[in-house]
């Protein structure tokens, strides 16, 4: 059975531990569409909105290490991932978020209990309050955070850290 899963992200490798946890615990016959979502306030400037590109904004917020980690996860769990995409939520109300969830047919959200999302840009905002107030089923994931790890080490650590769920 195919499920659409929402995972909040700050486009860091650490935020992908939630994806790893979900895929590690899932049955092999389960198939997932994974949406990695970050919140971004849009500008009020008509000129900026005129030239707004969702794809360009996502690319500017993401980085090479995050993209590599996504590829590692896609390769490792290829039989369980139908699709995995990065997206931004640009709404400013709970109703807008609920509409986003309904439009994307999201079944469940997975959030971390011990990792606080960083804001990748000045216009970013935390989407966790919207997720918690929505009607989505929420699964909280906990894992041991390593300190003083290089980006390359973070990439390899995505498959080494222990994970537990609540």
Describe the protein's topology.
Layout (H helix, E strand, L loop, with lengths): L1 E7 L8 H9 L5 E10 L5 H5 L3 H8 L2 H13 L4 E9 L4 H10 L4 E5 L11 E2 L2 H6 L3 E7 L7 H7 L5 E3 L1
Parallel strand pairs: 1-2, 1-4, 2-3, 4-6
Antiparallel strand pairs: 2-5, 6-7
Fold and architecture overview:
It is built from seven helices and seven strands. By secondary structure, the chain is α/β, with parallel strands linked by helices. The longest helix is centred in the middle third of the chain and has 13 residues, at 64-76. The chain is globular. The two termini are 23 Å apart. Residues 162-166 have low confidence and may be disordered.
Short structural summary:
The chain is α/β, with parallel strands linked by helices and 166 residues long. It is built from seven helices and seven strands; from the N terminus they run E-H-E-H-H-H-E-H-E-E-H-E-H-E.
């Amino acid at each position: 059975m195919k499920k659409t899963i929402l995972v909040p992200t700050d486009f860091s490798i650490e935020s992908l531990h939630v994806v790893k946890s979900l895929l590690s615990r899932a049955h092999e016959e389960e198939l997932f569409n994974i949406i990695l979502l970050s919140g971004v306030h849009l500008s009020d400037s008509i000129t900026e909105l005129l030239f707004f590109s969702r794809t360009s904004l996502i690319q500017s917020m993401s980085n090479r290490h995050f993209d590599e980690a996504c590829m590692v996860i896609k390769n490792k769990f290829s039989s369980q991932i139908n699709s995995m995409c990065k997206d931004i939520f640009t709404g400013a109300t709970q109703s807008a978020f609920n509409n986003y969830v309904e439009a994307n047919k999201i079944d469940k959200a997975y959030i971390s209990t011990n990792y606080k999302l960083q804001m990748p840009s000045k216009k970013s905002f935390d989407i966790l309050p919207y997720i918690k107030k929505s009607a989505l089923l929420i699964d909280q994931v906990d894992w041991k955070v390593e300190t003083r790890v290089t980006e390359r080490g973070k990439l390899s650590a995505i498959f080494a850290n222990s994970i537990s769920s609540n």
